[in-house]
Structure formats: structure tokens, C-alpha cells
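Fold this sequence, please.
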Amino acid sequence: MRLAGATSGHTLTVDVCEAFGVILLRAWKGTRVWRELTFVLTAAILSTPTFALALLGIVASALSVAIFGLAPLSGILGLARLTPRYFRAPARRLLGWTWPDPPPLGRRPVIAVLSDATAWRALAYCFLRFPLFYVGAYGAVLALLLGSLALTYPVWRLSAPHLIDGPAWQITLALIILLALPWYLRLIILLDSLLVRALLRPSPAARRSAHLEAGRAALQADATAMLRRVERDLHDGTQARLVALGVALSRIESRSTEAPVQALARDARGTVTEALAELRDIVRGLHPPALDDGLDVALASLAGRSAVPASVAVALPARPSAATASAVYFTVAELLTNIARHSGATRAGIALTQEGRWLTLTVTDNGHGGAAARSGTGLTGLTRRAEALDGTLSITSPPGGPTTITMTLPRED
């Protein structure tokens, strides 16, 4: 019974060792182990400059307020926000990983980056990534070196028996370390994936916010396209029919010899003329035709029709999106109307510039001031319009004037 038990235990041990060996050998099949080895070694090299950036960030955080000021820290955090793209390139190529870019900063990015959680998390990742991959690369190189020596041990033993000698268990251990290398690499990459998920990938709330913003942008684009279709249908269809009806009524009036018929045709033609004027106003409210030639041309046309003389200065590197251009146009139109009705001004100024990804519209007048966004006023509606587009509207209008109204909108290409 003892011999049978010993034989059974020995057989179980052999089976376990064989299964363990099969698992270790199977991990070396395919290209995965070589891709992961390349990734670990590459990451150890690429992590060196970002680790130095993280150390600079720590020093700047400690000394910026007392000695250097906040500018160096802002610059370091700004660079840290770019590192996710830097790390993503080899991860996507070798492992198939990817993650979205961080959301853009708001206006005045030098200040906004100081309180940006994305930048601080990226800086933390730069700090933690280096020791992880340094240990990973050191262990991988050591395993390859020991395994290579173990595999070539017979050659070394025959060529230099007096130099190379050692117990067999050391050779066996080196071979086991080499066979276990793929699992070691997977452990390092697993830890890195946890860091990426915690520090580089956007949180569920951020992903939902980005999804909602993308959905809102799509809805705005669809609404703009629909209004353009309605405008074309009204312009090319309904307006053309009304013009034809007016021409027909004019012919009836000129050819008829009966006074009642002439009077009826004249009245009907006047009604058609009024309907055409109202229709043009509706079409202009849906989509001003001047916007087709560019926002600068559209604003110049508004200034030309303004009851108060107005100057226009537009400095944009490229045309904004249709939704943004339409919002700017209607804002200027309403502000010029308010200036003519309520300000008592003799001149006005319109300026449109771009700073980073933000458009800034400034409308000024030399009137008596006192403008405010009170409930039920047009300025309240303009404030809500700006906020609906993730922008702001500020009003500076002391008693006696002048009045300056500034709207900032994010640029959406």
C-alpha cells in the first residue's frame, strides 16, 4: 500500500509538472509575447522623459508659489495633458489599446490647467509608469540573459569547463524563469492597464458628458440643415409662386376695363406684396442669405442697415460652423436693434476675434448706459443663447455709458 501510494503521488507530481510545463511553453507560441516584450522595453525608454517631467511637476508644485510663480507649473501641466497621445501610439500599435484624447481646456488655458483633473492625473501616470516599466524591463532582460545562458550551458561547459560550472538546479531555475517570462510581461501590462484606466481614460461621467455634447452638436447640425431646407423651399417654391401670382394680378388690373375688377386686382396685388415682404423676413430669420458669403460680409450688411452708424472689425483665421455663425449674426442683429431703440447712441462698434478655440464678439456703443439682463429683456434671451452653446455673455454698462457687451462662444468646426 505504501508503494502504491508513493507511486500515485509521484505520478501526480509528474502530471502537475508536465501540465505546468505545457502552460509555460504555450505562452511562448504566437507573436503576443514578442509584442508585449517590445512594448515593455519601449515603454521603459519612453517613460524616462515623462518621469523627468513628473519630477519637475513635483518640484514646481512645491516651489511655484513661493519662488517661480504659477507659469512653470502651468506649462508642465500643459505638457502632461499631451502625454496620453504620446503613450497611446505604441500601445495602439503593439497591444491594440486606445483611449480618447482629453477634453479641451476652457478659455484662458494657462489658468484653467491648474485646476484641471485630467492634467494632474496624467502627471501622476507619468510618475508611476516609469518605476513599473523599469522593473518590468529589468526583469525581462535578466530573464532573457539567464535563459540564454541556461540554453547554451552545454556549449559553455564543453568550451570552458574551468570557467563555467555550477549545480544543475541553477540551470533548471534559469530555464523556468525564461519560460515564465511571458506571464511576467502580462503581469506588468495588466498593472499598466489598471493605471491607464484609472488615470488616462475619462471617467464614466466625463464619457457621458462627451457623449451628450456630441449628441447636442449633431442635433444642432441637423436643426441647421433642416432650417436651410425650409429656407430653400420657401425661397424657391412659395416665394416664386407669390411673385407669379402678383404678376398675374398686375396683368388682370392692366387689361381689365371694369373698375371693380381693377380695384379687386389692385387690393389682391397689395396683399401679395405684403405677404412677400413677410415671407422675406421669415426667410431672413431662418437663415440670412448674407451668411453664405461669410460672417464678415453678414456683419457688414447688418452694420450697413443699422439705424446707428456702426463699424465692423472681423479677424478670424477660418470660417466658423454654421450654428456658431448664425448665433453671432442674430446676436449682433438684436444688439443693434436695442442700441437704436434704447441707448441714445450716435455710433456703435462690432468686433469679432478668435483666441484659441474661443470666439469673442464685442459690441459697444456710446449711449447713456444702464443696460442689464433683467427678466423679460432681450439681453436675457441672448444670455441664455450663449449659455446653450457653452458660452458666456457679459455686460458692462455704467450709468452715462458707454456700454460694452461681450459674448464668448466655443468654436465648433
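The two ends are 84 Å apart (CA to CA). The domain at 291-410 is CATH 3.30.565.10 (Heat Shock Protein 90).
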